[in-house]
Amino acid sequence: MDYENNSWIWEGVNYYPRVFGGLMVTAALLGLSSSYFGGIGVPYLSLPCSWSNLGIFHKKKSGKRRIRVYMDGCFDLMHYGHANALRQAKALGDELVVGLVSDEEIAATKGPPVLSMSERLVLVSGLKWVDEVITDAPYAITEQFLNRLFHEYKIDYVIHGDDPCLLPDGTDAYAAAKKAGRYKQIKRTEGVSSTDIVGRILSSLRNEKSCEDHNGCEVKPQEEDQSKASHIAQFLPTSRRIVQFSNGKGPGPNARIVYIDGAFDLFHAGHVEILKRARELGDFLLVGIHSDETVSEHRGNHYPIMHLHERSLSVLACRYVDEVIIGSPWEITKDMITTFNISLVVHGTVAEKSLNCEQDPYEVPKIMGIFRLLESPKDITTATVAQRIMANHEAYVKRNAKKARSEQRYYEEKKFVSGD
């Protein structure tokens, strides 16, 4: 047991001398120890009143206050790097509160956001590590907002990654939190960023448009490989990372397992909403993630934007998902349904159209009577997200260049200070 101090001993001696005298004599005679009682077993010594009634032991309160941590961001074009950052932040406390920067502040400091506040709210709220979301959070944490976090939201620590977050004037956006001694840092997830994804989309669609301008010419294998290589992430998946994102729990013996599949490229609010609806139809949601080759075959050579393991981690991070099949087949077979004990196969009404429609991939579950078409809550798709970026092509090119210059200056200064 944990006690505040040893004053209870002397209080007991002063107020209950006979009781303590008896205890001391008993201890001396029996050689009082936990090992003695554990090995031999001492008869229960009944006393005229309980220890708690005597008021001798002043125990600390057992209820430990939960640590609340805060992490903010734009979370535009949500990816596994965002999810991993929030996972790390949650590990530093008991409850994670996320601040979503407003559309207006993003536009003023970084350029136009790709996703609206409502779409970003769905994405962030859908992550398994997030407990609460504050909308319209400021880009810079001022002392005034910091006091609001501490007093109104009971925040203990402000969390951010080890990558730079600079204001337009070049100052640190988290200077106030650091000054207050309430700042903690996590490791940035290498290999991906919103800036990187925008670059991939611009490169991919630019290559696609270039091909269309040549009257639908076929891309040579070498040219195709080069175009894909231009937007492949430097991400090396590990089993440890997959375990960190996974629930680690299988379905119960009588669980109703619901299956839904897709590319889940550029994981967006529409994906979260349809996964939520699918999960509500059963006890366990199994999600099939199509391989890069399958997506390219049915969507075109310039897809997917995010590769298989990136897409798998984004889906695993969703609170409504229990397990994923990494590289699931296009057609759902009876053997697959039996192997995974699938009770229901579902598909949303809003989805990317396939270039290859020779056979219905859901033919078997339809024949078995276990297929259901779900009304998609949102009409957003991977293609519409990409089109938004292309529509603001110049703005995003400038935004990427500005971010790259800012980060380059930061790392050069950091390297100079460290003497490397």
TrEMBL record:
Membrane-spanning residues:
20-45
Gene Ontology molecular function: ethanolamine-phosphate cytidylyltransferase activity
A GO biological process of this protein is: phosphatidylethanolamine biosynthetic process
Q: Give the pathway listed in the UniProt entry for this protein.
A: Lipid metabolism; Phospholipid metabolism; phosphatidylethanolamine biosynthesis; phosphatidylethanolamine from ethanolamine: step 2/3
Which enzyme class?
transferase
Question: What EC numbers are recorded for this enzyme?
Answer: 2.7.7.14
Which residue intervals define the domain Cytidyltransferase-like in the entry?
A: 70-199, 259-358
| Catalytic activity from the UniProt record | phosphoethanolamine + CTP + H(+) = CDP-ethanolamine + diphosphate
Q: Which UniProt keywords apply?
A: Lipid biosynthesis, Lipid metabolism, Membrane, Nucleotidyltransferase, Phospholipid biosynthesis, Phospholipid metabolism, Transferase, Transmembrane, Transmembrane helix
List the InterPro entries. CCT (IPR041723), Cyt_trans-like (IPR004821), Ect1/PCYT2 (IPR044608), Rossmann-like_a/b/a_fold (IPR014729)
As recorded in UniProt, coiled-coil segments are: none
Cellular component GO terms, alphabetical = cytoplasm
> Does the keyword section mention Transcription?
no
- Please give the family membership noted in the entry: Belongs to the cytidylyltransferase family.
Q: What is this protein called?
A: Ethanolamine-phosphate cytidylyltransferase
Organism for this UniProt entry: Phaseolus vulgaris
